[in-house]
Structures are given as structure tokens and as C-alpha cells.
Amino acid sequence: xxxRFSEILSFIKIAESGSLSEAARRLGLSLAATSRRLSQxxxxxxxxxxxRNSRNLTLTEEGAVFYERAGQALADMDHAESAVMRAAxxxxxxxxxxxxxxxxxxxxxxxxxxxxxxxxEVTIHVETAAQLGNIVETGHDIxxxxxxxxxxxxxxxxxxxxxxxxxxSPAYIARRGEPRRIMDLTMHDTIAVESGQQDAWRxxxxxxxxxxxxxxxxxxxxxxxWALDGAGVVIKSLWDVAEDLRAGRxxxxxxxxxxxxxxxxxxxxxRQGETAKVRSCVDFLARCLRQxxxxxxxxxxxxxxxxxxxxx
Length: 312
Prior knowledge:
HTH lysR-type domain-containing protein, single chain, D-Maltodextrin-Binding Protein, domain 2
């Protein structure tokens, strides 16, 4: 027995063509099968939908009402399917992005503004947060972050690597001297960002060095402000301190020490990544971040001779 949708579709074709044989041709069915679907629909509804004679076929009053409403419902279904199918090929709709405060304000905001200009059918909604939550529960399409959680069930795309540098203020260096080797850190005050630099400090610890952790924080901006105020030596993302290095507010030390980069990643639900708006935005951010990474390194003069000790 045909399903309700098949019965209704057959009736719509019959009403539009005014003929059972023509409707059967359009549906790719036999005349008997088409007539049977119409009879089953009329039996289920309990009313006659068409008047049949030897020459033509016309709608009853009930048939005309049913044709108008059922036809509109089918048209709405077609529009809904088309809209969803376009989402896989055309970037459109609302794109909800969440990121950490510092990354969102300083890096992603102008990039997302540029993306919106290139894709006028997309509305960008950006939220910043101290810590990223579960984007499935919060309804975000993409999360952008440093150092993603190891146990995330979301799809992750690495957008770029953000180099880390060791730096201090000129005032601190003038007062305490410039550390040149890893061992020198045992004689210096250090500032540790606990939330995202455990791997970098762990590599230094594994080298047999136990720097004095004078100040600790889970806020990267607080660590930067402490370093600017001359409180100690800090490990920072190059993007976070590039302007400070260029302006001379901070000075890179131990340039030959290579620390693990901090990856910038996009997190999203696997199926969401198949939509054009998510896919195109993630690819766009990857291109922008990689280009900016190269420009930041070049402008900041971070090239150096062969590293004294490389951490990977």
C-alpha cells in the first residue's frame, strides 16, 4: 500500500494534468497503479476528490480544497529541501562563533568582519568567553581556541601554529640581567600561565632546570601586564606580544630556545562541517591566520640561528 505522501503526490499530478493517463506518465507509473492510489486516498479521506467521465476529469469541491492545501504543503517541502541542500554549497544563514576573549578581540574579530563582507548572505554572531564550553549545548557552530581539550569529541581542524617566545621588560633586564641559557632561569623570577603553558614549562623542567615561579595566573593578559611591569620572565604567544616586542615594551630573550608552538584550532560538530558556511569560514580563517603568522614572525624579527635546544 502506498504511503500517504505517494497518494497525495499522485492526486496533485492528477489535478494538475486533468487526466489519469497523463498523471501516470508524469509519475512513471501504470494507469492502474495511479488510479489505485487515487481510490485509496479517497477511501482514507472518506470523500470523492474527482469526478470522472469518459472524456475528462474534474475536481469536486472537496478535491479543490485538498489540492490547494496539499499543493502548498508540497511546495513548502520542496522549498525546505532546497534551502537545506543549498546550505551544503552556498554560505548563508547565521554563523555562531565562540572564542576566548583575547583571541576574539585581537585576532578573529577583523578576520570575521572580512569574511562577512565576502559572504553577504552570512550573518556572523561572535561571542567571547573566558573558557569555552560545550558548543553542542550552547548552540555555536564553531569554537576557536588555543590548545584544544584532548578528550573533545568534536571535529578539530588545526588553523595555524602560534609560536611561543620567552621575554621580559627592558626594565627587568636592566635590573636583573638578561638570561641567555636555560640554566640562567634558576636565578630569575618567572611568570607562569597555568592554563595553557604547562607543556612549555614542563619541557624546561625536564631539562633539569627548576625556575622560580614568582607569579602564577590562568589569565594570559594578566601575565602580560606583569611582564610589562617588570615582574619577571614570561613565556607568551608571539601573537600576544608581537606589538610589545616591536614597540620595545618587551624584549625577547634566549632566542635560540625553541618552545612548542601553541596550536590555534577550530572545533565543530562533524555534520556541521559539511555546511558551506562552516566549511568556508574555517578555511578562510586558516588562510588568514597562516598568512598573519608569517607576517608576525617576519616583522618581529624572530629569525634566529640554529637553536641551542629544541623542544618538540
